[in-house]
Amino acid sequence: MFNLISLATTPTLTRPTYLTNIRVEHKHIAIVMSLLGLIVTVLVPNLLYAAEGDPATAKPQMPPMEVGVVSMAKQTVPRISTIPGRAVAYQQVNIRPRVNGVIQTILYKEGKVVAEGDPLFQLDDAIYLAQVAADEASVSTAKANLNVANATYKRAFNLKGSGFTVADVEQAKATLDNAHATLGASKAALNYSKTQLSWTTIKSPINGVTDVAAVSVGDLVVSGQSDALTVVTRLDPIDVDMLVPSANILSVRSQIKAGTLTVNEKIKATLTLENAEIYETTGTLLVPGSIVSTTTGTVPMRFRFDNPDRKILPGMFLRGDVEIGDIQAFLVPQRAAKRQYTGQLSAFIVGDDGSAEQISFKDSGTWKNNWIVIEGITEGQKIIVDGLKTVTSGTKVKPIDATIDDNGLVKDTASQSKKGQ
């Protein structure tokens, strides 16, 4: 009975040894990870604090970048506007015939200078010579008739009442007057025929340079034809029409009203040719424009220049620098400023905190290698002119006074002082 009860009792289960070992290892790993976390939490902030607080271990800061600067100060400078222009002939004549005829001779050399009155073409003058001869004969006949009428009138007047009645005297007087009128008409016809004969030699009405002949010997030409035989152009002096934007005119007027611009008594201009050559002669304003073009918004102003070497030819496109007067303004070196898409200029200055700061401003023309600036810059500001390739807004800079030579190049006084040390 006892044995049966023992057999019916549930046996006791024993835990395997490998499971007990794994549990112990997990417990050890957890303890190690806790210790590592404690070390990181305590030591890392202390190490960072030590690194920041110890000058020996701190990372060295970059020194401010040296840049060349120019201090801004208002100056009296010429108010110059740069505007496009086009050369116009001072005098230009299309040569046309005044009588009908056939071209007999071309009397000039194409492209050469001719004087006023020099012959250019000779027309066949046979019919005009014949007309002159006929009119001369008419004048001779009229003179003879006048002599007869004069003698008849004198005889009738002297013998009035002795064979000549009052009516006879009056008739003789009328015949005499008619003879005078006939002679006058004959002389006028002769003068006209001689004038037509002179027109068969076509002459230059001005001093100038001839163009290529548009006709050949044997061509028939007629009075009043639309096609010119040639063109004679006077090139010295030469006129230049400059197209001034109406906005520029308004700007100048406002500056005059504000007292910042003093206008010259005579407005002069210089020219830059198409090959970028500066023309050596200064021109003067001839005709100020008074009407704004509805298509271009510009006002034409005509200037006159001496052109002894005939370097400027009609039709050339030129660039004019018009000196209007004197203005109080700042001069910003052109190398220091860039044109923005808005049309304004931008440049870097040295800010109050010693860092580079970008500013924008408008220009009122140029003078030498500088922009003329009236607004947007204050007295004493330092414009950065050198080292601009690496300068951005916020860059710490060390300003070094510099100068700009006539070629727009920077002369750094700092580099010169270093060489002397």
From TrEMBL:
MF annotations from Gene Ontology: transmembrane transporter activity
Q: Where is the Multidrug resistance protein MdtA-like barrel-sandwich hybrid domain?
A: 92-233
Coiled-coil parts of chain: none
List, for all copies, the residue spans of the domain called Multidrug resistance protein MdtA-like C-terminal permuted SH3: 328-389
The residues that cross the membrane are 29-51
Alphabetized InterPro entries for the sequence: MdtA-like_b-barrel, MdtA-like_BSH, MdtA-like_C, RND_pump_MFP
Q: What are the BP-aspect GO terms?
A: response to antibiotic
**Keyword set includes Membrane:** yes
Localization, per the record, is:
Cell envelope
Protein name (Swiss-Prot/TrEMBL) = Uncharacterized protein
